[in-house]
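Before surveying the methods themselves, let us examine one representative protein, pairing a chain with its fold in token form.
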Amino acid sequence: MAHATDTQLVLPGHKLPFTGLPFRLTQMIENHESALARLLDHLKTPQTATQCFPPLFKREIGPAEHGLALVEALAHLNCLLRRGQVLRSLTAGGAWAWVAA
């Protein structure tokens, strides 16, 4: 955020252009930290990435959104893994099961 200013015009890939990048970056960080906290609470018992959809998205994920939701869930899980807050192990079916450390 050291190079972001309130006057820079942001041209996002979706939605309308805007200014106020430092404020938006702070919002995004807070939103992701909140999602990570919900996810960590959910991982009191081992869960696969798709079983982590409810605490992350707080809505049903349909077939059209499944791939994007899976990628985002894995990104959050890998963030927690890098922070040392979760562990993972392979299930008999070959999926990762994630659990709070």
About this structure: The mean pLDDT is 96.
